[in-house]
Amino acid sequence: MTSIAQNISKLKGSLPEEVTLIAVSKKKPVEALQEAYDAGQRAFGENYIQELVDKQAILPTDIEWHFIGHLQSNKVKYIAPFVHLIHGVDSLKLLKEINKQGLKNDRIIPVLLQFHIAEESTKFGLNQDECEALLNNEVFAQLENVKVCGLMGMASFTDDKQQVQSEFEHLASLFKKIKLHPSIDSEHFQHLSMGMSGDYPIAIEAGATLVRVGSAIFGARN
Ligand SMILES: *Cc1c(COP(=O)(O)O)cnc(C)c1O
Which 8-state DSSP code applies to residue 138? Predict the structure, then answer.
């Protein structure tokens, strides 16, 4: 067994059955992804559009491609035909463009709303008020080719486990609240994407259904 295969089988053995492992393969060559695929891995996460499109064209067609990076509206068209789930959606503008491309491709594209839960400041991710404003907007109700299937977030980059835990628990409580919003299709609102190589056990404890693990599978990136 290669070390990638070993890492995957060790990780899968440690995850509860209901948690899906997304192998984050950004900046890794297709050979590394193929090794993970041969070890049974089917869900892959990428951050960059061009890289994702190039890899998708070469690798097996039964891979589920997750886009986990920051998505610009003008790039949605490149992944709309095949993307399995878009994790980082944080604006109505982006939802409208995903809807438009979903319509063009005759499909309903599943997305997660990204929340800002960490203490580091960044321009990405919603807070609760912004999310409610988005869901209450009458335009949102008209988007038939995009489906909000849950939430995504990233904890602070810190050794303080307590803090990471409370940030994940905060996202889990937001998930429960937003699931009840009248504009949300609660039956399909089922995913909580949180946890990376350094903190996925804490995320699972807090209720993650999708964990996004890169370096613990493929080794460090440069
Ligand atoms: C890179 C990345 C990951 C994976 O990070 P690791 O620490 O390598 O596991 C997960 N989520 C997002 C959004 C990322 O950009």
Answer: H
What is the Cα–Cα distance from 112 to 128, expressed in whole angstroms? 14
Best residue among 4, 8, 20, 24 to mutate for probing ligand 1, ranked by most atoms within 8 Å of CB: 24
What is the per-residue pLDDT across 12-57, written as a single tens digit (0 to 9) for each? 999 999 999 999 999 999 999 999 999 999 999 999 999 999 999 9
pLDDT value at position 2?
Answer: 73
pLDDT one-digit tens code per residue, 179-208: 999 999 999 999 999 999 999 999 999 999
Q: Is the dihedral angle over the CA atoms 142, 93, 214, 51 positive or is it negative? A: positive
Contact 206, 168 (CB under 8 A): yes
Is residue 112 within 8 A of residue 150, CB to CB? The reply is yes
Tokens of residue 12, six digits: 């899968």
User: pLDDT value at position 222?
Assistant: 78
Number of residues in the chain: 222
Is the entire prediction scored with pTM above 0.90?
yes
The best mutation among 68, 151, 158, 217 to test binding of ligand 1, ranked by most ligand atoms within 8 Å of the C-beta, falls on 68
What is the distance between the alpha carbons of residues 19 and 25, in angstroms, rounded to a whole number? 18
Half-sphere exposure of 69 (CA within 13 A, CB side): 21
Spatial neighbors of 185 by CB under 8 A, at least 6 apart, are 147, 148
Between CA 211 and CA 24 the distance in angstroms is 9
Burial of 190 (0-12, 13-18, 19+ CB in 10 A): exposed
- What average pLDDT does range 146-168 have in this prediction? 97
| Rounded distance from Cα 158 to ligand 1 centre (Å) | 15
